[in-house]
């Protein structure tokens, strides 16, 4: 404790018992437990003639006894409670936070917080399985699995098909890892991928990629509708086709027209369902998912059954050519009717006469036999050896079985064969298959409904990708091992009587797959038509693309009507394309571009390592993100290079349009963070305004004290600044030389070189700036105001505590300190004051254990949370643990506060031990009263001593040389106007008047000292001393062995008369602690739970 702790005065003695308790009471003081305040003679004396100003520390004319802001335990902080609230009130607001719905107003706006208080909200209860895993499964599994995977395997072969699936799955897995890092870097509001990308890369990229993602989701609706219509017309009710053709070459054109008509009607039906009752779409999601799971299980069951009892699906072959079985009654050239052999229906297709005689037949038909092979030979048949290799064919080619010998005669007829409907290639198959692995962001889209999104999103998404990847890869092998190659290449099942090819393998019936896949595609289409308008509405409400503003409007119930109509119109364009194989690559482009920028966002944030980048998901790396980005880019050009170029041009045009319109949105994105490390262009952008909370990093202005030899007095201050380098911010080292610039320019250059040399030794990367000023405080003010350039300006001032201010007769040291505190407060800068800086560790030391203790009394922007995290990135503090203490008052629920604080730190991604210290109202102790009295007596005594000393020093002042050498000073001593001096010469002549005046002065001085002995302490100062003493007791009790204690720094008094008392309060608050960092926020948030 201080040197005055055991002092004795005329009013009483403070005794410390061996246990350290303050036990004795001063005379004339009584304690009233019911009032919890000092009463009796003291309270009466406050109203008599000896009463001083009501409060030299604070103008509290509006003070009311019951005001919670004037709690005795937090009296030191009461002046700023309106801007720096108690931690308990902050935590209660954070505990009531709920994520906003997709398309809602920007989640950082304060209005939403107040709205959340008024309207009761449903607490999110969805876990990982129901909230993320199953929705991801439903969105990933889709129409491609049932309609095209067998064709991909048959065309590309098992090996290449396996490679296609593996590449696509690797792409989504790497993207999921990057997405998990972004999604766990704070609370992700419901809004999904668009919010993640836009808040990570900025409005330009966010708008461009957001629209691409919207278009991808819209075209996905078209793809699912086309898939459902294909299942309906080809496999369920083929007779429902409106357009028909007997010519095989024209039949595909007729099918496209059917798809357009039925697809448009089906789109209108789904849009009406979404428009009328979107809640029913979500309710039926479970049914649609059940259809998918049952269908997949039926495939595995059929594959297992085929190993011992393969299903009977004969395929009719003419030579090595596959015949369509849709119009064939029997797989033979002839058939037996009674005892007669007559031509079969097949004969009539290849010959011009139904009689054996005088018939002219197709030459290939004449020279080759008609045979029947097993379409599903089964798992044990060894057919996989034939299906390992690719068999790419041009459009119109006949599907053949290479292993079957046949005549080389080609023949002329082809309409009864199974033909290739599209020219296939490896790149085309990649584009067609990729949509089947999309949908990985379904979990992040539901983040507002999750109980613990930061835990559920990574686990659920990655498990869903692993599950679907296993299903796809295993199905590639199973299809190749169970199904004949010509059947695999038969896209529409013409060789197996029009059955869905994957259905022929399933058990117990092909209809399980047909019905299941139909309902799953319907459900997926509804989900796309539900999500896409809301995505467009979110983009429109962000107002980054002005012409989309109209689509931000919605019905009274929040449904985006106009956005739904635009979505339907765009989906209609996809339906008019009419071909699933042509729509899928377009869909792939948009999703690949979206995934590319998710990987880019993660890589950029990881390489920048901004202070806000603290993902709870640890298993990410910038190299993985770059690999995912490269795969996405490669897949775009592999699947369709011209589509890729068109998609990039569209995205680029949107980007430039948003930039041209002036996207004045600030979301704390990575591009803005990157600007902090750039030059002219970045500086111009940074001047637009203060950085977002997510981009906030400590830009330090370190104020150094120089001795008379221009050497740094406390080099450990620079060491401490270097240990905050994880903040990746600017460091400016400044100091002041008192004097005239013209005369002291050389000293300034020498001091600058000294500081730069020390900065190199301490590995501080930054700039040095010295100011020559007539007065020290003016020089400090100039540094604080003018350091930096544009957006590269300091936001935090670092300085040392003025040690020995009590012992110094010169008050300028601590007055300069308080003046600096006031200047930083006025400039809205954060302030770090290192007390006992000489005990701080050097960069060569390394703590093997210990704690960094944070005492969070009031909330002033979150600096107390951010600083220990940054220190722990340095090797000196890396092995220390963070402990966070906060204070609970009598009205606070300490158990709930601890839970809320733990939740708050969890969302901040900061690992720390939490403890709530209870400080109930207690009577003001004798020690507090005595300590306050001694503080006030000392201040009054020093004022009187300074006046008498001035008188005594008058004659000495006369003999001083006016032109004495200019003494170089620095922070800590200032030759300014604070000490009153007399410049005029006074000729001391002893007269009677002088004698009488001298006697009067002495009498007045004696009266002053008598008043000093009879004074009573000011009540408000007693309360502040009570706060300092009580807080110091609990801090020393809990943190006396801590390696570093971080503590809220109370604000300076508004009335300068209380400055010296303020210094005393801070001394009492930090007594008994080895290393203390007093932290005062700049008034803005520096840390956020948001992503």
Automatic annotation (TrEMBL):
It is found in: Cell membrane. Residues 1-49 are annotated as: Disordered. Residues 132-304, 423-701 form the Amino acid permease/ SLC12A domain. Pfam families: AA_permease, SLC12. One of its GO terms (cellular component) is synapse. One of its GO terms (biological process) is chloride ion homeostasis. This is Solute carrier family 12 member 6.
């Amino acid at each position: 404790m201080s040197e005055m702790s055991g002092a004795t005065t005329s009013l009483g003695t403070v005794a410390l018992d061996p246990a350290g308790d303050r036990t004795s009471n001063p005379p004339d003081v009584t304690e009233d437990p019911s009032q919890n305040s000092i009463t009796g003679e003291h309270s009466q004396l406050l109203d008599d003639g000896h009463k001083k100003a009501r409060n030299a520390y604070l103008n509290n004319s509006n003070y009311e006894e019951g005001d919670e802001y004037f709690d005795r335990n937090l009296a030191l902080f009461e002046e700023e409670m309106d801007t720096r609230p108690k931690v308990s009130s902050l935590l209660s607001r954070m505990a009531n936070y709920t994520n906003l719905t997709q398309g809602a107003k920007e989640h950082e706006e304060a209005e939403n917080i107040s709205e959340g208080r008024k309207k009761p909200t449903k607490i999110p209860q969805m876990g990982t399985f129901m909230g993320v895993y199953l929705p991801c499964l439903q969105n990933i599994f889709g129409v491609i699995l049932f309609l095209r995977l067998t064709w991909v395997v048959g065309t590309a072969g098992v090996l290449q098909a396996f490679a296609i699936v593996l590449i696509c799955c690797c792409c989504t897995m790497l993207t999921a890892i990057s997405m998990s890092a972004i999604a766990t870097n704070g609370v992700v509001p419901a809004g999904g991928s668009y919010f993640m990308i836009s808040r990570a890369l900025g409005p330009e990229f966010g708008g461009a990629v957001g629209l691409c993602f919207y278009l991808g989701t819209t075209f996905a609706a078209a793809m699912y509708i086309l898939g459902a219509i294909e299942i309906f017309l080809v496999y369920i009710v083929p007779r429902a086709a409106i357009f028909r053709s007997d010519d095989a070459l024209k039949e595909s054109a007729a099918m496209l027209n059917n798809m357009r008509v039925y697809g448009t009607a089906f789109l209108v039906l789904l849009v009406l369902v979404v428009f009328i009752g979107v809640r029913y779409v979500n309710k039926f999601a479970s049914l649609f998912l059940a259809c998918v799971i049952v269908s997949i299980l039926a495939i595995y069951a059929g594959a297992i059954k085929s190993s011992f009892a393969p299903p009977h699906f004969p395929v009719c072959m003419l030579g090595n050519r596959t015949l369509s079985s849709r119009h064939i009654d029997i797989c033979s050239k002839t058939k037996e009717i009674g005892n007669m052999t007559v031509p079969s229906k097949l004969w009539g297709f290849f010959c011009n006469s139904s009689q054996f005689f005088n018939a002219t037949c197709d030459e290939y038909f004449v020279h080759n036999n008609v045979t029947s092979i097993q379409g599903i030979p089964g798992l044990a048949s060894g057919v996989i050896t034939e299906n390992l290799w690719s068999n790419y064919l041009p459009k119109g080619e006949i599907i053949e079985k290479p292993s079957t010998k046949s005549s080389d005669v080609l023949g002329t007829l082809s309409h009864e064969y199974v033909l290739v409907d599209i020219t296939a290639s490896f790149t085309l198959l990649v584009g067609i298959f990729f949509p089947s692995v999309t949908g990985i962001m379904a979990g992040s889209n539901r983040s507002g409904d999750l109980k613990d999104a930061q835990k559920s999103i990574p686990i659920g998404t990655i498990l869903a990708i692993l599950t679907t990847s296993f299903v796809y890869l295993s199905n590639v092998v199973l299809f190749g091992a169970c199904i004949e190659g010509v059947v695999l290449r038969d896209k529409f099942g013409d060789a197996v009587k029009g059955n869905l090819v994957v259905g022929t393998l399933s058990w117990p019936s092909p209809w399980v797959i047909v019905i299941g896949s139909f309902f799953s595609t319907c459900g997926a289409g509804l989900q796309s038509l539900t999500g896409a308008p809301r995505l467009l509405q979110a983009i429109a409400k962000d107002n980054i693309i002005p012409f989309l503003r109209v689509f931000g409007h919605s019905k009274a119930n929040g449904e985006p009507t106009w956005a739904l109509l635009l979505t339907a119109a765009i989906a209609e364009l996809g339906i008019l394309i009419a071909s699933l194989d042509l729509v899928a690559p377009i869909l792939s482009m948009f999703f690949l571009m979206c995934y590319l920028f998710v990987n880019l966002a993660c890589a950029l944030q990881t390489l920048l390592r901004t202070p806000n980048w603290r993902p709870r998901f640890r298993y990410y790396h910038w190299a993985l993100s770059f690999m995912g980005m490269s795969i996405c880019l490669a897949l775009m050009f592999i699947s369709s290079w011209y589509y890729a170029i068109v998609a990039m041009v569209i995205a680029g045009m949107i980007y430039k349009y948003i930039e041209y319109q002036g996207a004045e949105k600030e979301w704390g994105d990575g591009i803005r963070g990157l600007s902090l490390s750039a030059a002219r262009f970045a500086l111009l952008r940074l001047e637009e305004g203060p950085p977002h909370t997510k981009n906030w990093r400590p830009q330090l202005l370190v104020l150094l004290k120089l001795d008379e030899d221009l050497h740094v007095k406390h080099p450990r201050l620079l060491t401490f600044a270097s240990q905050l380098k994880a903040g990746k911010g600017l460091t400016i080292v400044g100091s002041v030389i008192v004097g005239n610039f013209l005369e002291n320019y050389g000293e300034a250059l020498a001091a600058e070189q000294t500081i730069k040399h020390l900065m190199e030794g301490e590995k501080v990367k930054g700039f040095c700036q010295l100011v020559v000023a007539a007065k020290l405080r003016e020089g400090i003010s100039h540094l604080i105001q003018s350091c930096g350039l544009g957006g590269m300006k300091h936001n935090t001032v670092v300085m040392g505590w003025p040690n020995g201010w009590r012992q110094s007769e010169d008050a300028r040291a601590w007055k300069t300190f308080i003046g600096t505190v006031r200047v930083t407060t006025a400039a809205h800068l954060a302030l770090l004051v290192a007390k006992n800086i000489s005990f701080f560790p050097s960069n060569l030391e390394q703590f093997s254990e210990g704690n960094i203790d944070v005492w969070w009394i009031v909330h002033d922007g979150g600096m107390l949370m951010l600083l220990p995290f940054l220190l722990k990135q340095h090797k000196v503090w890396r092995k220390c643990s963070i402990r966070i203490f906060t204070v609970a008052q009598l009205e606070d629920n300490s158990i709930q506060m601890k839970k809320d604080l733990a939740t708050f730190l969890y969302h901040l991604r900061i690992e720390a031990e939490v403890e709530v210290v209870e400080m109930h109202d207690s009577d003001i102790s004798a020690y507090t009263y005595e300590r306050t009295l001694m503080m006030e007596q000392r201040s009054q005594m020093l004022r009187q001593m300074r006046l008498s000393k001035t008188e005594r020093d008058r004659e000495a002042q006369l003999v001083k040389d006016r032109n004495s050498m200019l003494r170089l000073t620095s922070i800590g001593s200032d030759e300014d106007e604070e000490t009153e001096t007399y410049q005029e010469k006074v000729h001391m002549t002893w007269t009677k008047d002088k004698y009488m005046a001298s006697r009067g002065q002495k009498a007045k001085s004696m009266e002053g000292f008598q008043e000093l002995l009879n004074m009573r302490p000011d009540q408000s100062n007693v309360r502040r001393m009570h706060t300092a003493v009580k807080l110091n007791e609990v801090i020393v009790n809990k943190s006396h062995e801590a390696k570093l204690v971080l503590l809220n720094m109370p604000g300076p008094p508004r009335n300068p008369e209380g400055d010296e008392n303020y210094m005393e309060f801070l001394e009492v608050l930090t007594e008994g602690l080895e290393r203390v960092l007093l932290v005062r926020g700049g008034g803005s948030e520096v840390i956020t739970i948001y992503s």
